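Can't attach files on this board, so I'm pasting raw text. These are the components:
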Amino acid sequence: MSENYSVIGKSVPKIDGREKATGAAKYTGDLKFPNMLFGKILGSPHAHAKILSIDTSEAEKLPGVKAVITHKDVPTLKYGISPARWDENIFCSDKVRFVGDKVAAVACIDEETCYKALKLIKVEYEVLPAVLDPLHAMDEGAPQVHDEYPRNINTEIHQNFGDVEKAFAEAYYVRTDYFVGQRTYQSPIEPHSAVSIWKDNKLTIYSSTQSPHYFQHYIAREFGLKMGDVRIIKTYVGGGFGGKLEPTGLEFAGAVLSRLTGRPVKTFYDRHEMFAHNRGRHREYMEMTTGVDKEGKILGVYANFVMDGGAYTSLGIASAYYAGALLTLTYEFENYKWDLHRVYTNLPACGAQRGHGAPQPKYAYESHLDNIAKELGIDPLEIRLRNARRPNTVTANEFIINSCELTACLEKAGEISGWREKKGNLPKGRGIGIATGSFVSGAGYPIYRTDLPQAAAMIKVHEDGSAATLYTGATDIGQGSDTILCQMAAEGMGYRYENMKIIAADTETTPHDFGAYASRQTLMSGTAVKRAGEEIKKQILDMASTMMNLPPDDLECREGIIFSISRPNATPITFEEAARRFFVLRGPLIGRGVYVVPRLGGTYKGAAVGTSPAYSYCAQITEVQIDEETGEIDVREIWDVHDCGKVINPMLLHGQVHGALYMGMGESIWEQVLFDDKGKILNPHLGEYRLPTALDMPIIHSELVESFEPAGPWGAKEVGEGATNPTMGCFSNAIFDAMGVRVNSLPLTYEKVWRAMKEKREGITKD
Amino acid sequence: MAQVITDQQGIKHYMITINVNGDDYTRVVKANTVLVNVLRDELDLTGTKKGCELGNCGSCTILLEGKPVDSCMILAIEADGRSITTIEGIADSAELDKVQESFINNGAIQCGYCTPGMILSAKALLTRNPHPNEHEVREAIAGNLCRCTGYVNIVKAVLKVAEEPNDKGVISNE
Amino acid sequence: MYLPDFDYYAPDSLSEACETLDRFGAKAKVLSGGTDIISKMKGGLLSPEVLISLKKLEDLKKIEYVSGKGVVIGARATHNDLVNSKILNDKYLSVSEAAHHMASNQIRNIGTVGGNLCNAVPSADLPPILIALGATVKLVGSNGERTMLLEDLFTGPMQTVIAHNEILTEIVIPEQSLTGSTYIKFGLRRSGALAVVGIAVAVTVSQGTIIEAKIAIGAAAPTPMRAREAEEHLRGNMISDELIEEAGLIASKESKPISDIRGSADYRRDLVRVFTRRALHKAINEGHV
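---
Top answer:
C-alpha cells for the assembled complex are below.
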C-alpha cells in the first residue's frame, strides 16, 4: 500500500444511496408521461407450432384498446445481440419456437385492458413436434427449430492447443468425469420495462437496460433509423446480471405501438413473462478428462460440452466460447483440447448470466480435480497450489495474464478458514471444500465488430469550480459504477468526491460506452474517466501556474487544493479559484478520456473470445453440515479471498463479492428452471424458483490480497462476476468431503445428496 | 360500507378512504383494484415496488397499521378505513430515518429495488423489538428477496441500529 | 398481473354473510385474508363472480380460552396472530411454532387460519398440528351449524366437505391432558417454502409409557392424514428408541406421497420416517414445542 490516494480506496457512500433509501429513485416501471398508454405482448402457448392465422378483430373492438400489432405491422428484419446469429423477429410470422415466443402486442389505456385485450386475440396454431432434450437435438430426424441451422447446431467449436494425446499417454493418471449443469435464470427483482416515445423522426426509449449503446445500435438498425435519432435513456435499474443486455420485444413492440398511436407506451413483463423471455444460464453437459503426473500436476485437459441454447442465440455464442476458453485461466497446462456444441431447442433462449458460461464448467472441473486429488492421495488445497497460475504467464489458448495472485489467495483462504486443521478432522457430516475462480475484466472485443473505443468519458467543471459533472455512458445497474467512476474522476482531477455530479447512460448526452457486462466498467470505463480527470488536472495546473507564478510540473492538486511540490510554504490556491479563472479566460473547462483495448489474443478461430486486458482471481472455501438422514445441506461458512487489483471502494467491492457468491450459492443448491413435457415452465415464479432468503445465508468472510494490475486504472481489475465462478464447485467438493458422495449434477439438492448417500450405503455406486 | 356507483357496463365502483403516511385519501376503486396499484398509480407513491405480484418477493411491502404486508396481495377495498405507511412516510421530516441512514452508510443498497420493502420490514421489527439479535433480523426480512447483496450488509445495517440506545423512530402502530 | 372483475360484498354480521352466500351460491367465494384467493385469481385458476368479505366480522378474529371447551381460534385470526397469541404460547406452543413456519412474515400478517384450512393444500403447516391436537371446526350456514373433527374436513387436494353456503368460523382445540406436542416442517429453504413433508405429533406420556399418541402427516398424501397404525404401535408401550424408530417406519409405510417438483415419492416416504421419529422424541422429551 505504498500509494496514498485521496479518494479511491475509500468506502464513500453511494452517490444514489439517498434516492434509493427514500423510494425517490424512479425505475422505468415507475415513470409516467402525459397521455401514456400501456402495452403488453402476447406469447405463444406452444413450444413449437406453425401460425396458421391471427385474428385481432375482437381485441381491436374492446374499449380502451388503441392499437394491436402483429408481424404485419413491424419490420421483418431478423435481429439478435450476436451479429453472427440474427435469428429473432419482433413477432413470429411463420412459426413460434418456445412457450412465450412473441406473437402480437397491444397498446391500451390501462394495464387491465391490456390483459383483457390479449385474451381476445385469436391465433390458430398447428402444433409441431418439439425439441425439448438438448442431447437429442442433433439426432437425425429431430424437429428443426430454425431451417438455417441443420441438426439444430447453433454453434460448434473445436479448439486444440499443444498435444493432449501425448500428454495423456505420458501421464501417471488419466481420469474422465461427467457433470450436468442446470438452467437458471437471473431473476432480477425489477422486471423488464420500457417506455417508448416515437414522435416525428425521433425515437426515445427509457429502458431497464444494461447497455444503452447496444440497445441504441440494434434498435436503430431494426427500424432503419440513424443512431442519432434514437435516444436510449437508463433511469435506475433493479439488477440485470446479464439478462438486460439486449433489446427485447418490450422495446421493439413498444416503439411500434408508440409510432402508431402517437403516444408514449409503457411495456413491461410480469414475473412469469420474464422467465419465458429468459436469456439466463445454459444447461450444460460436460465431460472432463485430465492427465496428471504423480504429483498431481496437470499435463493436459480435454473437455467436451453440449449446451442447451434454447430457441434463439441471444449472447449464446459468447457463452459457448467462454465455457471452454476460460478453463485455462486458473491452472497452468500447455495441452488443451475442447469441443462444444450449442444446440437449439424449443425452450426459452439462453444467454449470459453472471459469470457468463464459465461457472458450470468450473463446477465440473473443480469437482473433477478433487476426484483426482482423492485418487492420488493429495490434499485439495495442495493440488491447487501445485497447479495455480502465476503472474505474467500466457495460457495455452493465448490469453495474456498480467497480475495474478492466485497462490496468495489460496494460501490466505487456507489460513483464514483453518483448512489445514479442519481437513480430515471435522465431526461426522461436516465437510470443507475448496475451489478457485477467475474472470475477465471486460471482454477484449465488443459484441459486434467495430472500431469504436470501448469507453469514452467527459468531465465538465462548473464555471466557479464548485462542482464537476462526469458524463459517461457507463451503466450503473446496482453495482455502483456511478459511485466509483465519480471517485475515479475526482482522484484523476485532484478534486473532491462530494462535489461530483454524474450524468450517465443517456445516448443523447453521454459519450459512448458499451455498458455493464463482462465486468468491464471499472477497468475500461474507469480508464476513460481517469484520463478525463487527468486532462482536467493538467488544464487546472496550467492555469494555476500562471496564478502562482510557478512551473506547472512543480504543482500538484489534491482534494481541491493546488500546492507547490518543492516549496511547501508557497501559498496554495483552490481548485475553485483556478477553475473560475480558467472559465473567464478560456471558456468551458472540459476533460475528455477514451479507452481502447490493445489488440489481444491469438489468431486461431474464436481466439478473440476470452481475451481481456486483465483477469481477477479468487479462492473460495466453504464448510457445510449435511444431515445424514435427509441430505439437507446447511451451509455454515464461506471464505472468499480475491485478487481484484487496486480496490476503488472497499464497501462496494465486498458487496459485489457477497452478491456474486449469493448467486453462486443459489445456483449451487436451490435454483433450477423446470419444464413440463410440453416445454412449459413449471416454476416461473419466486415461490418455486427458490432464491435463498436471509435465513438461508451462511457466515461470509470476504477478504483480499494485495495486487496491482498494470492494465487497469490505478491497478484495478474486476470483481463482480469472479465470485460466482468457484462457488458451485466449492459446494460440490464440500459435500464430497462431508459424505464421500459426489453429486454430478446441479443443483446439489438435498434429495440428490440423500439419494447419493442411499446408493452408496446400498453399494450401488462407488464414491 | 363504502359508497357504490355502478357504471354503464354494470361494473361497480367503490369510494374508499385510506390513511397513507398520516393523510387521508379518498379515491374511487373497483373491487378488483389491488392496493399496490392505488399507491403507485393513484397516489404516485412509486417507492413501493412490484416485483412478482404474487406475494413472494416482498418488494411491495408496506406497513398496514404497523405490520408488514405484501400490498400486491390486498384488495384496495379491503384497506378501506385503515392506515398505511409506505417508504415515503418513514422519515417524518427532511432528515432521514435511522434505518435509512444505516442502509446508506453500511453498503446495504445496491440496485435498490428491494430497499423500500426491506427498510419497512426492518423498521417494523425495530419498533416491536428495539434490540433484536441477528436471527431475529434475518427472520424479519426473510420475506424480502434481494438479488444483489446476499443480505450481508443489510443485516449489518439493521444490527447497527439495533445496537443503539432507545430513541425516536417508533412508527404509529396498531 | 390483473384480477378478473367481480362483485364485492362486506356483510356486517355472520348471519348477513350467510344470507349473501345463499343468494349467490356457487358463484361466490368467501374472502378472509385473501392470499390464496388473490393468488389463484391472478394465476387464472379461479374466477368467482362474487367475493364476500368477512372483514367486518371482528368476532372471528379472537383467540380465547373457554374453560371446559378449550382454546377457541377464530377463523379470521392471522397466522401471526397465532404466533403471537399468549394463550397459544402458554398452552400449545407447538401451534404457534407451526403457524410461524408458514410462508413469510408479510403473508402471515394477512393470511388467516380459516382461509388456510378452507384452501386445503396438502402441504399446509397448520392442519397437521391441529389434527394431532384433536381440533374440531365449526361450519355455519343459514340452515344451521355443524361441528366436525378437522381431519374429516379434507377430502382431497384443495377439496373439503364445506358446502357452498357454509362459512368456517372457528377452530377448537379441546381440553386434554397431553404432555407434549410438536410440528416439524421439512422445506427446501428456510422461509417461503411449502413443506416437502410436515409431521405433527401429540403425546401423553406417563412413567416411561406412551399412554396416547397422535401422529398427523402433511404433504405426503392427498390430504393431511393420521398415521393410525403407527399410533397403535406406540399406544400403551414403554418408550424406547427402537419403539419410536419402528413407529417412524410404520408411519412411512402408511403415507401416500406423490412425486412433484419439490420431491420424489420415495424421498418423501423416507422423510416421513425420519421426522416422525424426531418429532416423537421432541414431544416426549420437551413438552409442547
